[in-house]
Amino acid sequence: MKEILQTNRLILREYTQEDFNDLLSILSDPETMKYYPKPYDEKGCQRWLDWSFDNYKTYGFGLWAVQLKSTGEFLGDCGITMQQINGKTLPELGFHIHKKHHKKGYATEAGKGVLSHIFKTTDFTHIYCYQTKDNLPSRKTAEKLGFNLLEEYVENNVTHTAYCLSRDQFLS
Hints:
The protein is globular and about 35 Å long. The protein is 33% helix and 35% strand. The N and C termini lie far apart (33 Å). It is an alpha+beta fold. The longest helix has 18 residues, at 42-59. The chain has five helices and eight strands.
């Protein structure tokens, strides 16, 4: 298990295969995944983990497991992945926190830690965050982190919002 960073309350580390059941409890939950086309089954969860492992090897970053520092409890994930956003491959901040831990500031805290880490360890000048337009919780988290609405676009008959945060904005 490779630790990536710590915040006041959280530890972010690379996923391991042992995270499967904890991750499945998030990805298979219809309420948590209501802004995705559908919840994930076991095969989808394994693809998520394998994709994460591949991202670590390919890019040196990806979605990282988020744990509560005080107890070690698995809360979800947060990190940077390369995503297709309105036809461009861009570094995107993603976060998925178990619904029992929503509205406690964990996604925002993890996001700040990830942004600080990624701006220190990569040459990225901008990080993006995108979601379906109706995903207000994700949009609010992006805004709390300082992201600004860049554009709205339609993909597969679904309207998405794309946000952007520059290195200079984050560091000021």
